[in-house]
Amino acid sequence: MVLKLAVQKGGRLHEDSIQLLKDCGISVKNGHNQLKSTAENFPLEVYFLRDDDIPQYVEDAVAHIGIVGENVLLEKNKQVDTVEPLGFGKCRLSFAVPKGETYTNSTYLQGKKIATSYPFITQQFLKEKGIQAEIHEISGSVELAPSIGLADVVCDLVSSGSTLFMNGLKEVETILKSQAVLIKNKGLGSEQQQLLDKLLFRIRSVRKAKNNKYILLNAPNEALPKIFELLPGMKSPTVLPLAETGWSSVHSVLAEDEFWEKIEKLKQAGAQGILVVPIEKMIM
Ligand SMILES: Nc1ncnc2c1ncn2[C@@H]1O[C@H](COP(=O)(O)OP(=O)(O)OP(=O)(O)O)[C@@H](O)[C@H]1O
Ligand SMILES: O=P(O)(O)OC[C@H]1O[C@H](OP(=O)(O)OP(=O)(O)O)[C@H](O)[C@@H]1O
Ligand SMILES: [Mg+2]
């Protein structure tokens, strides 16, 4: 019994997908042009595919699970379950217009010609807003469309915005925020579900660890109550006496997103010699 996983063959999600497996202790070798690989130390078979095909493969149970962007998942509109967001491949699907244009709201799009690789999502948005527009589907280099007279507007993926900028366009409306997600077939057997649960446990431990830091600091004992308030830790902070009397070392875990704010407050409360180290795995 193996779990079959579909990942992107190349492109934006490939490396992060393989790295995630690696962080989960699963090594997958994929040589050049190799489209299938078996993990060495987990009952996992990996298929390397165009991302567009992944939802269909998972719906059909050719692959039990897959890693794909939410943008592709929504566009393909297949019957699969989303299991877990994976925190990479973050981007948004937005309308963009030539930078000299004035766009106040979506009524601007009425009667316009829109170039996109996401005709289904774009059409849904227009329908919700009651707008009639012409959608011109193209599979790549969408940002070029206005400058060569193919369209008035584009609806495409944006991350840093540099592709839009380089093509004289400006982002005017975001219709979807996306990241890579783990999807699964709706009718998984119990053995595959068990393997998926095992994999998911590892993925969650890895992701939790990435979102947290281990913090060590020294503080005078009278500052400890204030410091405990700032550092609840996984259960409660670890406190060890320092060789110098009246001082302690405090160890705890801190969420990445509240990191800088907390560090300031800890310093104000009397913390010194603060060390922050990455956590490799975090099992709750
Ligand atoms: N600029 C970006 N920053 C971050 N994530 C992105 C960016 N562009 C795309 N993505 C995400 O990565 C996914 C794959 O993007 P990529 O450009 O590699 O797709 P593709 O060219 O369609 O590849 P394929 O050859 O597999 O069809 C997208 O569907 C999206 O979820
Ligand atoms: O806002 P930015 O950071 O510039 O990123 C946006 C660009 O990234 C993606 O294309 P990608 O570079 O993956 O090439 P592709 O269109 O050939 O897949 C997307 O289709 C945009 O063109
Ligand atoms: Mg694709």
TrEMBL record:
<keyword id="KW-0028">Amino-acid biosynthesis</keyword>
<keyword id="KW-0479">Metal-binding</keyword>
<comment type="similarity">
    <text>Belongs to the ATP phosphoribosyltransferase family. Long subfamily.</text>
</comment>
<feature type="domain" description="ATP phosphoribosyltransferase catalytic">
    <location>
        <begin position="50"/>
        <end position="204"/>
    </location>
</feature>
<keyword id="KW-0067">ATP-binding</keyword>
<dbReference type="InterPro" id="IPR018198">
    <property type="entry name" value="ATP_PRibTrfase_CS"/>
</dbReference>
<dbReference type="Pfam" id="PF08029">
    <property type="entry name" value="HisG_C"/>
</dbReference>
<feature type="domain" description="Histidine biosynthesis HisG C-terminal">
    <location>
        <begin position="209"/>
        <end position="281"/>
    </location>
</feature>
<protein>
    <recommendedName>
        <fullName>ATP phosphoribosyltransferase</fullName>
        <ecNumber>2.4.2.17</ecNumber>
    </recommendedName>
</protein>
<comment type="function">
    <text>Catalyzes the condensation of ATP and 5-phosphoribose 1-diphosphate to form N'-(5'-phosphoribosyl)-ATP (PR-ATP). Has a crucial role in the pathway because the rate of histidine biosynthesis seems to be controlled primarily by regulation of HisG enzymatic activity.</text>
</comment>
<dbReference type="GO" id="GO:0003879">
    <property type="term" value="F:ATP phosphoribosyltransferase activity"/>
</dbReference>
<dbReference type="InterPro" id="IPR011322">
    <property type="entry name" value="N-reg_PII-like_a/b"/>
</dbReference>
<dbReference type="GO" id="GO:0000105">
    <property type="term" value="P:L-histidine biosynthetic process"/>
</dbReference>
<keyword id="KW-0547">Nucleotide-binding</keyword>
<keyword id="KW-0460">Magnesium</keyword>
<keyword id="KW-0368">Histidine biosynthesis</keyword>
<dbReference type="GO" id="GO:0005524">
    <property type="term" value="F:ATP binding"/>
</dbReference>
<dbReference type="InterPro" id="IPR020621">
    <property type="entry name" value="ATP-PRT_HisG_long"/>
</dbReference>
<comment type="pathway">
    <text>Amino-acid biosynthesis; L-histidine biosynthesis; L-histidine from 5-phospho-alpha-D-ribose 1-diphosphate: step 1/9.</text>
</comment>
<dbReference type="InterPro" id="IPR015867">
    <property type="entry name" value="N-reg_PII/ATP_PRibTrfase_C"/>
</dbReference>
<dbReference type="GO" id="GO:0000287">
    <property type="term" value="F:magnesium ion binding"/>
</dbReference>
<keyword id="KW-0328">Glycosyltransferase</keyword>
<dbReference type="InterPro" id="IPR001348">
    <property type="entry name" value="ATP_PRibTrfase_HisG"/>
</dbReference>
<keyword id="KW-0963">Cytoplasm</keyword>
<dbReference type="InterPro" id="IPR013115">
    <property type="entry name" value="HisG_C"/>
</dbReference>
<keyword id="KW-0808">Transferase</keyword>
<dbReference type="GO" id="GO:0005737">
    <property type="term" value="C:cytoplasm"/>
</dbReference>
<dbReference type="InterPro" id="IPR013820">
    <property type="entry name" value="ATP_PRibTrfase_cat"/>
</dbReference>
<dbReference type="Pfam" id="PF01634">
    <property type="entry name" value="HisG"/>
</dbReference>
